């Protein structure tokens, strides 16, 4: 069962509680599923250890590890907000149209 934290977080805001370790946990969880719920990145991927991930989906999953309530990817803005957040945590974002499928 997945719980989404829709009341505590305003649309457009990535939770400040998310740390690098939460992002790593989210990517590890995605590595366990074959099809990441058909949620694809349109133009950029989070690249980590040679694997590609959709940034918004990773942040949404990481929010569950950080706050105890998982956000839905539509609860916050993608694009530069999500990508800049991940870059500040030390991750690499690259232009890519694979949709996060290169794993």
Structure description:
Helix content is 33%, strand content 12%. The chain is α+β, with helices and mostly antiparallel strands and 103 residues long. It has a domain at 42-103. Strands 2-1-3 form a three-stranded antiparallel beta sheet.
Q: How would you summarize this macromolecular structure in one to three sentences?
A:
This protein has 103 residues and is α+β, with helices and mostly antiparallel strands. 33% of the residues lie in helices and 12% in strands.
How do the strands and helices of this protein lay out in sequence?
Elements: H1 20-31, E1 44-48, E2 51-53, H2 55-67, H3 80-88, E3 92-95
Antiparallel strand pairs: 1-2, 1-3
* Low-confidence sequence ranges: 1-10
Number of strands: 3
Class from helix and strand fractions: alpha+beta
Proportion of beta-strand residues: 5-15%
Number of helices: 3
**Mind summarizing the main beta sheet?**
3 strands, antiparallel
- Radius of gyration, in Å, reads 12 Å
User: How is the largest sheet built, in terms of strand order?
Assistant: 2-1-3
Calculate the terminal CA-CA distance, rounded to whole Å: 25 Å
Overall pLDDT confidence: 83
Helix-strand topology string = HEEHHE
Provide the helix percentage. 25-40%
Shape: globular
Question: What are its keywords?
Answer:
disordered N terminus, 3 strands, 12% strand, single chain, alpha+beta, 3 helices, 103 residues
């Amino acid at each position: 069962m997945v719980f989404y934290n829709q009341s505590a977080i305003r649309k457009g805001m990535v939770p400040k509680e998310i740390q690098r370790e939460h992002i790593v946990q989210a990517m590890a969880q995605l590595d366990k599923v074959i099809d990441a719920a058909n949620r694809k990145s349109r133009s950029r991927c989070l690249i980590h250890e040679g694997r590609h991930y959709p940034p918004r989906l990773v942040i949404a999953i990481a929010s569950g590890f950080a706050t105890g309530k998982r956000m839905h990817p539509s609860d916050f803005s993608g694009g530069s907000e999500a990508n800049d957040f991940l870059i500040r945590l030390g991750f690499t974002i690259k232009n890519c149209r694979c949709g996060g499928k290169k794993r």
